[in-house]
Amino acid sequence: MNSRIQNFANQAWIIILIFFGQAPPFSFSDPRIFEAGLFCGKPPPVPNTSYIPLFVKEMQSLSQLVTAEDWGNYTVHSDDLSIYSLAQCHRDLSHDDCLQCYAASRTRLPHCLPSPSGRIFLDGCFLRYDNYSFFDERTDPVWDNVNCNSTVGVGVDDDMEFGKNAAELMDNLTAAAVANGGHAADGIKGVFGLAECWKTLSRDGCGECLAKANRQVKACMPSREGRALNAGCYLRYSTVKFYSNQSQDSNRNSGVSKTAASIAISLSVVFFCLLSLFAGYAAYGRWRKRKQERSNLGRISYSYNKSNLNFKYETLEKATNYFENSTKLGQGGAGSVYKGTLSNGKTVAVKRLFFSTNQWVDEFFNEINLISGIEHKNLVKLLGCSIEGPESLLVYEFVPNKSLEECIKDKAKLLNWKERFNIIVGTAEGIAFLHGGCTVRIIHRDIKSSNILLDENFNPKIADFGLARCFAADKTHLSTGIAGTLGYMAPEYLVKGQLTEKADVYSFGVLVLEIVCGRKNNAFEEDSGSLLMTVWKLYKTSRLTETVDPLLKGDFPAMEVSKVLKIGLLCAQASVAQRPSMETVVRMLVNENCEIPEPNQPPFLNSMVSADSGRSSYSTTSSSSNTVKKVGDRYSSAESSSIQSCDL
Questions:
Q1: What is the largest CA-CA distance in the chain?
Q2: For residue 8, is pLDDT > 60?
Q3: CA–CA distance, 241 with 252 (Å, rounded to integer)
Q4: pLDDT band for position 271 (50/70/90)?
Q5: What is the pTM of this model?
Q6: Domain(s) of CATH 3.30.430.20: residues in the chain
Q7: Which among 30, 446, 464, 549 is annotated as catalytic?
Q8: Is 446 a catalytic residue?
C-alpha cells in the first residue's frame, strides 16, 4: 500500500510538471524547443519520498540563475541526498527565447523522475541533473549520442558536395568555438551549423568534447540534419539557417520582458502547486503509517481480548519488581524472560520482547495466535500478554527447572537415564501434537535444547513459537525464508528453503543424540568430531553405547539406549522421505515390540543432500560454508510475505 501511495505521489508531481509544460509559447519568436534528445538513468527500486521536493528546490534555484544569466549550475544537499544541475541556453538565443526554451526543458525533464539522473537536449538549450558533480565532464561513453533525424523539408541535389561542405563547416565551427569561448555559429554554401560548449568546461575540455561531436555528427551525412548530444557540448548542422545573429547581451540589458515575467509567474505557480502536493502527501503518509500501526496492534488486541489473555502492563511490571536483574531467568534472540509473582501469589514467566526490527508485530501475533488456542502437557502454556504499555510482554506458565540446555551444560544437575528418556518421549509427543493433534498442522522450526523447558518433575515443555508456521493440509511443503538454529536445521531447509514437518523431525533427531550423549551438536566441528558423525561411526561398528554420557557411569539399559540412538539417527537422515513422522517416532519410543528400521547416513556440513536419494552425499561450496559460519548460532532471514494466521 505504501509503495502505491508513493508511486501515486511521484506520478502526481510529474503530471503537474508536464501539464504546465504543455502551455503554448509566450511569444512569436523561435526559442528552438524541438527535443533533440531525452536520456534518463535507471530509477531506483524503492524511490526516496524526499527526492522530488529536493528536486523542486533545485530547479527553483537554477531558474533564478537562468533568469539572471541565461545559464547556471547549482547543487543542493539534504541528509544522504545530493542533486547537481546545469542549465544553459545557446548563446545566439535572445533572453526571452532562452527563458522559453528553459521553461520547456524544465517541464519535460521530470519525465525522468524518480530516476536520480536525467538530461535533455533542446535545439536552443540544455538541462541536466544528476547525483554526482558532472560539471567538468567532457564526454560520456555511455550517454553521448547523435540524432540524425531531420526536421526540415529542404533537400539537397548533390549528396557528395553537401557532405563536403558540411564536413568543412563542422571543422570550422569546432575550431572557432574553442577559440571564441565555447560558442560559434556560421554557414557556408547552403549548410548552417552551431557549436556550443557548457560554460563549466575548460578550453581543453571544450576542444575534446567538440572533437568527438565532430566525428559523431559527420556520420549523419548525407542526412539534411545532424546533432551531436554530448556530456559537455552540442553540435548541429542543417540545410536551414536555424540560429540567430542576435546578441543576448543587448536583449538582457533591456530587462526582462513581459513574456519572461509571465513565465516566471507560471513557474512560481507550478512550484507552489508541487510543494502543496508534497505537503499533502507527507501528511497522508504519516496518517497511513499511524493507521497501519493501530491496525496491527488492533488485530493483536482483538485476538487476546477475545481469549481473555490481556494483562495490564503495570501488573506485570510490579510482578517482576520492575524487571529487576535478580528476577531475570534468561535471554534469547527475541527478548528477555523474567520471573514474576502476581498479586494472587501465582508465579509466572514474563517475556519482554525486543523490537529492533519491523517484524516484531508479526512474530508477536504469531506466537499469541498459535499457542493461545492449544493446550498440551508438553507445550508451554501462554497465560496472556500486554501491548498497552511502553513495550509488549508475553506471560507464560512458570517452569522452574529452566531449560534442557542448561541441564546438559550444568553437570551438577545430572539427569539420570529415566529422566532423559521421559524428556525424549515427552518432547516427541509435544511435536507430534503440533504436527497433527491440534486443529491445524504447525511446524515449530526451532526445536533445540534451549527451547525445551523442564518443570518441577523434569517433564519437558516446548517453548518459543515465534518462528512457527501453519501448514495447510493440501500443501506438500512451504517455501520460506531460512530461520532457526544452525546444527538443528534440516539440510533441505537450510539449502533450498523447503519447509515440511520433517524439518522438525530432523531437529528432534539431533536433540535426541544430545540428550543421550550429554553434549551439544556443533554445526562447525570437523565432520570427524561432530556429534552426528561420532554416533554414526559407532553405530556402523555396533558400539552405540560408547556414545552415552559418561556421567551416567553405565547406569542405563543398553538395549533401550541403543534403540533411542537408532531412532535419533533415523530422524536425522539426509532423505526427507525416509525420516519417520513424529507420530511414528512416539510409537517406536513407547512400544517395545515396534520394529526400528535401519537408518541411512545422516548429512554433514561438507555434503549436499539430494531430495530424491536416501544415501546421496552433498557438498556445499566454500563460499556458502563461510556464509553460514558468519551467521552465528541463531538467525532469521527476512521473509517477503507476512506470517500466516491460524484460526485455532
A1: 112
A2: no
A3: 23
A4: low
A5: 0.50
A6: 1-135+259-306, 141-256
A7: 446
A8: yes
